[in-house]
Description:
This protein is mainly alpha-helical. 51% of the residues lie in helices and 0% in strands.
Amino acid sequence: MGNQIYWDSSYEIVLCLMETYPDVDIEIVGVEQLFQWIVALPEFADDPELANDGILNDILREWYEEVDPS
C-alpha cells in the first residue's frame, strides 16, 4: 500500500486490514479490537481520538461486505 490512510478512507483501511489479517473471522471482531488494529497499521496517519463507534462500525461492515459480498 504505502499511502497514508485516514478515518474517512474506510475502503483503504479495509484493504490494509485484509492484507494484515487475512485469516481473521470478522464475525468475532469487536470495535475495540478493530480500533487497535487500525491505529497499529503502518499506513494509518490520522488522530486516533477522532474515532467513534459509528466510524468503526462502518469500517467493520465494509470489511464484512468485502469478504462476503453475497
